[in-house]
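Write out this protein's structure.
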Amino acid sequence: MALTNRTGAISRYGTAAGTGALAALVLVAVCGSPAFTGWAGTHTDPNSAGGWYLRLLAWPAWRFDAGDQAGGVLAADLRAILLLIFAAGLLYLLPATQVARVPGGLSQFFSGWAAYVLAGGLAGLLGVFLGPGPSLLAALQTAAAGASYGFLTGWIIGTASLGGRA
């Protein structure tokens, strides 16, 4: 006989991975949008901390048209698409409460943050290799930019992962 019966019980909260993936989707949809990237590029000072950070938020930029980029819209948006896929996958693969010595909110936070750092680096790396004109140097540079993007914005995903079921 089970001590707890979770069948039929509906939780008011989502899973930590689900809320983190939703936060990643909102972050990429809003901050990677053409409106935000255009605004950040023209109305912020890249030599100030706030302006630099707002420009960093626009790293996974996506577009409605490919413009002059070879490969079409998919190639232009590949980095943003891969970031979302990897973020969702890694959030589900890094169950913080099962690998942490002390389960709880802090391990959920760091698990969500780490998943977004890895997702940013992998999206940058594979985005160049799968896109038009791949080169090893460009892939490594973009992976470094993606990992730094994930490190400096991953706290948002980690915070969203707090309080969710494991």
